[in-house]
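Hey team,

Filing this mostly as a record. A colleague (T.K.) asked me to run one chain through the structure pipeline before their review meeting, and I want the input and output archived in the tracker in case anyone asks later how it was produced. No errors, nothing strange. Just documentation.

Input sequence:
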Amino acid sequence: MILPVVAYGDPVLRKEAQDIEEGMEGLDALIANMWETMYRAEGVGLAAPQVGQSLRMFVVDGSPFGEGEEGDAGCKDFKRVMINPVLFDESADECAMEEGCLSIPGVREPVTRPVSVKVEYYDEGWVLREESLSGIAARIVQHENDHLDGVMIPDYASPLRKAMLQSKLKDIAVGKVPSDYPMRHPARKGR
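Output structure:
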């Protein structure tokens, strides 16, 4: 089932998400719905808070970045469910790249992140895994993990750029900015 993506301004996007307990009722259905929602929205990642669930989990599929001559080979088969992820050993080397977010349609901003990172997480079968990621795969995981801590792209912007974005962010919150996928707008009248 395709779930509405929560738009910027909803308090769930600013909460620190809660750990998930093994055997949580409805988790398999939530994972399936998140995959369907992410693909419908043509995203490469989707965190549980983005569908209104304050849970420490996200799904990622970086394969769109692993295609073609300029593709990131590390993303070719990079499809994961990450439950209760913990990031560590972030590299000192950083790189800036423009990022977008399904909760903020039409906004793309440069974000500087570590080039590589390690992540420990449980997969959908509750197997504990550890991976070293670099390039686009590392960026995708860091972006989605930010959602679990209540951090979003505008938080990386300079004060001047944040001020310039305020009008557009308010329009997103009330549903004035169109999207090609279902959204839930926190400030829409008659909600």
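Quick notes for T.K.: The longest strand covers residues 79-88. The mean pLDDT is 92.
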